[in-house]
Amino acid sequence: MTVVDTATNTRPAAQREASEETKTGKFVLTLSCVERAGIVQAVTTFLFERGFNIEEHQQFDDGLRQTLHLRTAFSGATDYDLQALEAEFRPIAERFEMKFDVHDETKQRVLVMVSKFGHCLNDLIFRWRGGSLGGDLALVVSNHETHRAMAEAAGLPFVHLPVTPETKQDAERRLLELVDEYNIDLVVLARYMQVLSDDLCRSLEGRAINIHHSFLPGFKGARPYHQAYDRGVKLVGATAHYVTADLDEGPIIEQEVIRVDHSYGPTTLSTVGQDAEALALSRAVRWHCEHRVLIDQASTIVFR
User: Fold this and answer.
1) Which of 139, 192, 221, 267 sits at 20 to 30 Å (Cα–Cα) from 73?
2) What does the alpha-carbon distance between residue 97 and residue 105 come to, in Å, rounded to a whole number?
3) Residue 53: phi, psi to the nearest 5?
4) Which segments of the chain does DSSP mark as H helices, in order?
5) Spatial CA neighbour of 292 closest among 68, 59, 117
6) Residue 248 is among the residues annotated as catalytic for this protein
7) What is the pTM of this model?
8) Rounded CA separation 304/294 (Å)
């Protein structure tokens, strides 16, 4: 039963009904196709004829690859749903051989994977609770118990999935079950220190983001910040990218760099690096959840 607070709902009934009748929904159209004349006109005419108002429009004309990438946010009557919009736009998409998606206001549901380092998880939780993440955190999965308290304090379910060479296949199968069970749209590897199998990477293609320090591939293996200190690095960075079967070589979404000097020891470099990781990852998650990232072969177009 819905209870209406009559003390605060003081507008006349006619005004309330008028307001409800003019309520609008918000949508985002993204597309990529070979560049040719008439594409933008076709999109804007389609929206105009249906009474939609364009709130944000960005496009990138790639002269080298002769392709066009577009993101248009628009609003209009709520009697339109995604299926209707997709069906009505499809003839235009077929005419221009577009790859396209239409999204509504439904927020992306995010599953975060973490190991023993909790700085990225903590930052994601902070931004989510502050309403600036762009998506909704739904679940935390870890191969350690280290951050159960952090997750549960934020009201997030925490699932412990220990991983050994003998249990890895079962653990990954359980992860995919959790993705389905919680209706997950995006999996975020927030310093999750396990290599995903090729099969799992393919299952999560385009909907899994990883973060790593930008010393890769220069400083692979253990203690990268100690390696960086030994080489006298002058920049500390981090890279957020989509997960692929090619380890740490997926399409890059965001990178963050911070200048350092000879006075930064391994511990200080690690602290600075964690700041860079948290910044790059949170931006990548927000842009993905807001449908601002278009994958183009091995790279991305990011409409910030």
Assistant:
1) 139
2) 26
3) -110, 125
4) 13-21, 39-49, 82-96, 119-129, 148-153, 168-181, 198-203, 224-231, 266-289
5) 59
6) yes
7) 0.89
8) 11
Active-site residue, selected from the candidate residues 62, 79, 248, 296: 248
Q: Which residue has the tokens 């004309």?
A: 61
Query: Residue-wise pLDDT tens for the chain (304 aa)?
Result: 333 343 334 333 443 343 445 467 999 999 999 999 999 999 999 999 999 999 999 999 999 999 999 999 999 977 888 999 999 999 999 999 999 999 999 999 999 999 999 999 999 999 999 999 999 999 999 999 999 999 999 999 999 999 999 999 999 999 999 999 999 999 999 999 999 999 999 999 999 999 988 865 577 777 888 888 898 999 999 999 999 998 888 999 999 999 999 999 999 999 999 999 999 999 999 999 999 999 999 999 999 9
Contact between 31 and 99 under an 8 Å Cβ cutoff? The reply is: yes
